[in-house]
Amino acid sequence: MSTNESKTDMKTKNKTLWKIIVITIIFIILLLFSTVFSLLNLGKQTIAKGVSIKGIDVSNLTMQEATNKINEAVNIELMLGIELKYGDEYSTNFDVNQIQYTYDVASSVKEAYQIGKSNNMIVNNYTLLMTAFLGKNIEVQSTYNENSLTGILDDIASKVPGLVVQASYYIEGNELLIDKGQVGIAVQKDALKTKILHNIENRNALEILENDTEEVIEIEVDTVQPEPINLDKIYEEVHSEPQDAYYVEQPFQIFKEKDGVDFAISMEEAKAMIADETKEEYTIPLKLTPATKTIDDIGTEAFPYEIAFFSTKYDASNKNRSGNLKIAADKINGTVLMPDEEFSFNEVVGKRTIEDGYTNAKIYENGKVVDGLAGGICQISSTLYNVVLDANLEITQRRNHSYTTSYVPAGRDATVVYGVQDFKFRNTRTYPIKFEANVSNGIVEFRIYGIKEELEYDVKIIPVTTQTIPYETQYVPDPALAPGQQVVVQAGHSGYKVTTYIEKRLAGAVVSKEVLSNDSYNAMPTIIHVGQ
Predict the structure, then answer these.
(1) Across 368-442, where does the E strand assignment appear?
(2) How many CA atoms lie within 13 A of 132 on its CB side?
């Protein structure tokens, strides 16, 4: 090997050695820097730079500071109300608190605090650098009361005007009357639920503070045809053989009489009648075979104990309304409900028709007081609701009115609309019960009689107003009035949100207190006609 080649070789080796030395020094410096950087951040009691929670920057904050900041934001977001609207025909206010919507802020803050604080120094440094440059957002998990939301959606779905009326039937004397129903709408409850939750999840506290306006969500509906009349099913439900009433003593049990019911025409004739689609209602004659012995024939020993009593007042001078109340009450009077049997107001009272003697009286409709057939009948269902509550029976279907009533406090009413909204309850007592109803001298009275049981609870119903909704004043031009003249045609009143509790006592001691219902009532506007 020549001397020149030896020198070149040596230079190359020296360069390589220096590169290794430089790289080693740089690595050691970086390692020292990284170690110091990691130790400094590991010891910090604050959240790393670039971290946000629910889109809110929490960089360099302690866990408590971050918790306070996020809680302040979510509280603002959860305070915002929502107006749920169906065109100009219906609206109601939705309060997020009604569904107990909450955020798990503590878990999110803890997750944010742990960023860059693992046991791996290299991973920590990488994480901290990437977070500082690119940022990292942590979402907050939320929970809500599914049953409460479902109840609110069901309530809205029963109150939107123009609902589909399903086919229905009732027995009047020796006739079976079948109503084929009416085309109407049905609320898209799943879509409305998705809209409400999406609205809540995507709120921004800063935007809310800037706008300070209530959110509005349109209620989507489908046009729905009533289900076809199923005559075979109706026949199966109404057909019965006569059965006499009787009771046994060991153990004491009462068995209610049943009248025999059958079609007075053949099934083929009945189906041919239903096939005529031009009619809205069909009448099928019945053959009735009465029982030879009724519960009334058994004697008072069957129902010796007054279980519950409730009464409401009405204006006896209003003859139309008074007459409607009496007709409906007489339909219920004397009704016997067997153990575990369900009572349906619409089935027992039947369709409210002119032929039955019902007349027009005041009702609520679309935010106004108007005349309607069988007006006042909800006072009967509401009085019945309260006596049933006092008897500690199970409520299986009940809705409150859209507006408060004068005869019972908010939270203690039960609205009924034939074919649309029913009031139902079940006899959960051991023995049969009997209803006595009386309407006279401005008082509606309901009593329930039966056999006294081993445990008879004292029941107390406690409505609590959680929100008051102020009413508006609407001015309507009226050319029939003199210029500037004003006439109040409808007095307004506030709306309310009410939580009603049922409290049960034994020997004066409270044994349970539960939520009975969460009800919302719209505000009734004052309407003033103004001369132009």
Answers:
(1) 368-373, 394-397, 424-426, 433-440
(2) 11
Token pair listed for 477: 């031009």
Closest CA to 64 of 45, 50, 49: 45
Q: Is 404 exposed, middle or buried (0-12, 13-18, 19+ CB in 10 A)?
A: buried
Say how far residue 129 (Cα) sits from the centre of its chain. Answer: 49
- 312, with CB counted inside 10 A (0-12, 13-18, 19+), is buried
Residue 511: both structure tokens together: 């044994």
The predicted-structure confidence for 497-523, as pLDDT tens digits, reads as follows 999 999 999 988 999 999 999 999 999
> In this prediction, what percent of the chain has a pLDDT beyond 70?
90
252: which strand partners?
Answer: 249
Which residue from 106, 105, 112, 109 is spatially nearest to 127, judged by alpha carbons? 112
Residue with tokens 């009945």, as numbered in its chain: 270
CA geometry: angle 24, 29, 31, nearest 5 deg: 90
What's the CA gap between 198 and 196, in Å, rounded?
6
- Claim: this prediction has a pTM higher than 0.90: no
Q: What is the mean pLDDT of residues 353-359?
A: 84
| H or E element, residue 75 | helix 63-79
Strand, helix or coil for residue 434: strand
DSSP code at position 497? E
Q: Are 434 and 334 in contact (CB under 8 A)?
A: yes
Q: Which candidate, 360, 361, 365, 312, places its Cα nearest to that of 522?
A: 365
CA angle 358, 361, 364 (to 5 degrees): 120
Q: pLDDT tier at 5 (50, 70, 90 boundaries)?
A: low
For residue 311, give both structure tokens.
């009464």
pLDDT, average across residues 97-126: 88
Q: Kindly state the DSSP code that residue 76 receives in the 8-state scheme.
A: H
Instruction: Centre a 10 Å sphere on the Cβ of residue 64 and count the other Cβ atoms it contains.
Output: 10
Computed over its alpha carbons, how large is the radius of gyration of the chain?
Answer: 36
